[in-house]
């Protein structure tokens, strides 16, 4: 059972929301991507991938970044 095209679009949309949130909050904090990566304890490429809405990230790394703003991601029942 694979992803349908509509599933991919939903996933891409959700990653765009996360990307916009992280980028906006990082800039509000006055931090460069490099500074933010250092404070969040992740490598620079993680921040870049999140802000570019890439979907090949581990949930633990995304959560490590989101925790900087008091947020985390987890499973959600969409029904």
Brief digest:
With 79 residues, the chain is mainly alpha-helical. It contains 4 helices and no strands.
Task: Quickly list its features.
79 residues, mainly alpha, 4 helices, 61% helix
The tally of beta strands, per DSSP, is 0
Radius of gyration: 13 Å
Uncertain parts = none
Shape: globular
Strand count, sense and barrel status of the largest sheet are: none
Report the average pLDDT across residues: 86
What structural class do you assign from the helix and strand content?
A: mainly alpha
Q: Helical percent range?
A: 55-70%
Run of helices and strands:
HHHH
How far the N terminus sits from the C terminus, by CA atoms, comes to 19 Å
Report on the structure:
This protein has 79 residues and is an all-alpha fold. It contains four helices and no strands. The chain has helices at 5-28, 33-40, 44-51, 59-66. Helix 2 packs across helix 3. The longest helix has 24 residues, at 5-28. It is globular. The mean pLDDT is 86.
What topology emerges from the helices and strands here?
Layout: H1 5-28, H2 33-40, H3 44-51, H4 59-66
């Amino acid at each position: 059972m694979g992803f349908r095209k509509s599933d991919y679009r939903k996933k891409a949309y959700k990653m765009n929301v996360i990307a916009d949130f992280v980028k906006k909050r990082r800039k509000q904090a006055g931090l460069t991507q490099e500074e933010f990566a250092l404070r969040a304890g992740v490598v620079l490429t993680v921040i870049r991938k999140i802000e570019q809405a890439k979907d090949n990230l581990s949930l633990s790394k995304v959560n490590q970044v989101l925790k900087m703003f008091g947020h985390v991601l987890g499973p959600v029942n969409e029904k």
